[in-house]
Write a structure and sequence with these properties.
Blueprint (H helix, E strand, L loop, with lengths): L1 H5 L7 H13 L12 E5 L7 H7 L4 E6 L2 H13 L6 E5 L2 H4 L9 E6 L5 H8 L3 E11 L5 H11 L2 E10 L6 E9 L13 H4 L3
Parallel strand pairs: 1-2, 1-4, 2-3, 4-5
Antiparallel strand pairs: 5-7, 6-7
Helix pairs in contact: 6-7
């Protein structure tokens, strides 16, 4: 299958896909701004989550799916076509650290989302450079614990400020989830993000 070839997801049982991928992605609907003209980038989109479910629910969103793996994006391009979601949707093949230096993408989005398994301080360096002033970076996490405290300095340095944390439990698996909502209150200094690999290997 394409999933085995591309390593899209370890979750393949239909009921688990429905809850842990689709339902989980759509929890962002409660926190997205409700205005019509919304630019959203899904950083490290992987299997297109949460970006594609959000685009299905709100087709007017201008969606950018960013990933460093080309074969995944080729698959997602096919998905967008088959779901008739190609209007105002595109894929970008790049690492976040490189893409965020591109003036076409830097500080151009109302919302940046990340569902990647990485510490919050690392995700902040990947995502906040894409966000416009007064926009939001929304990190999809499990139980947040001490990650917030450890990320406080990074968030501040990158121009962000913690706006809210929404904690909830998924209905069937009872898995704990957190949406960490960070507002962009000042421009990200030009030196960020640092070169590819540095945020992960030497977090702020």
């Amino acid at each position: 299958t394409k999933n085995k070839v591309m390593n899209l997801t370890a979750i393949t049982e239909p009921a688990e896909v429905a809850e842990l991928h689709l339902f989980d992605s759509l929890t962002l609907l409660d926190v997205l701004p409700d205005y019509f003209d919304l630019d959203l980038i899904d950083v490290g989109t992987g299997a297109g989550l949460p970006g594609i479910p959000l685009k299905i629910a709100r087709p007017e969103i201008r969606l950018c799916l960013l990933d460093a793996t080309k074969k995944r994006l080729d698959f997602l391009d096919q998905c967008l076509k088959r779901l008739y979601l190609t209007d105002h949707a595109k894929t970008v093949h790049a690492r976040a650290e490189d893409a965020a230096k591109d003036p076409i993408l830097r500080e151009k989005f109302d919302i940046a989302t990340a569902r990647a398994v990485a510490p919050l301080n690392v995700l902040a360096e990947y995502c906040l450079p894409f966000v416009k002033l007064n926009g939001f970076f929304i990190a999809m996490k499990g139980p947040i614990g001490s990650e917030l405290d450890q990320a406080e300095q990074a968030i501040s340095v990158l121009g962000g400020d913690l706006a809210d944390v929404r904690e909830f439990t998924l209905p069937v698996s009872k898995a704990e989830r957190s949406l960490v909502i960070i507002q962009k209150i000042s421009q990200t200094p030009k030196r960020f993000p640092r070169k590819a690999g540095t945020p992960k290997n030497n977090p702020l």
